[in-house]
Each structure stands twice: as structure tokens, then as C-alpha cells.
Design a protein that fits this description.
The chain is α/β, with parallel strands linked by helices. It contains 10 helices and 11 strands. It has a 6-stranded parallel beta sheet with strand order 3-2-1-4-5-6, sandwiched between helices. Strand 7 and strand 8 form a beta hairpin. Helix 5 runs parallel beside helix 6. The longest helix has 14 residues.
Amino acid sequence: MLDKLFKRRAAADAAGVAGSIMVIGLGRFGTAVARALVRLGHEVLAVDASQELVEELADELPNLLRADTTDADVLKQLDVTGFDHVVVSIGQNLEASVLTVLNLSQMGVRDIWVKAATAQHGRIVERLGAHHVVFPEADMGSRVAHLVTGKMMDFIEFTDGFALAKTRAPREMHGRTLAESNIRPRFEVTIVGIKRAHQDFIYAVPESRVEPGDLLIVAGLTPKVERFAGET
């Protein structure tokens, strides 16, 4: 299995196509990431320390191995430095997550993504060399909190306090262009696009006219976006 994977990876590299990825830790998050990457056409090697879990997923993921990634020799045997990206999604075992990230960093892996359970966990793996740290539970909790009131249909917040949201157009904007509504000076947000029922998404310009029922894609600092959504 690995021979075939490595041959396909080498062929992709030779063709200038990047995208080989190792996913370590196959809990709900890691499995979802691996499945999505496979659907997107990437060469994925999924790894977990549990033989039982590996056997459960054998029919879903094409390249799957049981391996102890806290052992640097094991990672060397898997040629981990040849992968374009490595995702560490070891959930409950903090020690295993930290040791795995330490091994990857010391071996010079070019792009390390880590799922962190807590802020402290995130700080530790960042100091050990993780390039990207994600907090899926905290991020989803924040997203749901913004959606549950019905003021927003979708919400994405970035680490620098910047957010994108999909929200209903306030009544006062109905029948007016964005320039006439004077949204940016008043609310300090930018209307990026407009989605109208049964029509394609359109990019917003000052001349774009807002109609009842329109959904707006709004960008700006999180408190500003929240304030604007509160007008709906």
C-alpha cells in the first residue's frame, strides 16, 4: 500500500502538483479531515495508534496505517518529511499530541497543522514548531452562539478579530443602493456580496440595490459585524 502511495506522490511532485497529506489521529475531527481531503483528490495517508479504529475505517480511507507517531523512528519509516502537509488530530492524549508535534518539528516537516483541545495545548504545540493550530470545538461554539439568535445565517471569525457573516438585509436598506444606505461610514463594515432568492451570488458595488429578502455577506471587525447584524 505504501509503495503505491509513495509512487503516486512522487509522480505528483514530478508534475509540480502538491497535495500529499498525512493525517495523524482518527477521531471524529481527524476522520472528517481525511475523508474530505480524499474527496478533494489529495493523496492522504491516515494514521492512528488504535488497531481497532484502523480496522473500522479500512473501507472508507484508501491509505490507512496503525502506527505510534510518538516514536520518531516510525515517522522516519513513513517518510513523513516527504509529505506536503501533516495534520495532527490526536484528541484526548495530550502527551501523544505534544510528542508527535515535537518529532515532526525536529525532523523538519514543512507544514504542520495541529488540533488543540485547549489554549494551553495550543501554546505548547506552537512553541514546539506547529505552523497552524486549530480549535474546532471552541470555533464551532462561537459560531453556533452567533447563529442561534437568528440574526445571522452563517458566521466565520478569523484569529485577528475579523469576521465574515451572512445576514438578512435590514428593512431600512430595502429599495436603496449600498451608496444610498451609507453602510460603511455608519457601521464600519463592508458589504461584500448579495444573495437573492433563486439568483446567483453577486459581488457588491456601490450601485448594487438591495431588495426585501436579500441576504448580505458582511465583512469587518467582529463587534462591528455583530452590531450590523443586530439591525436586521
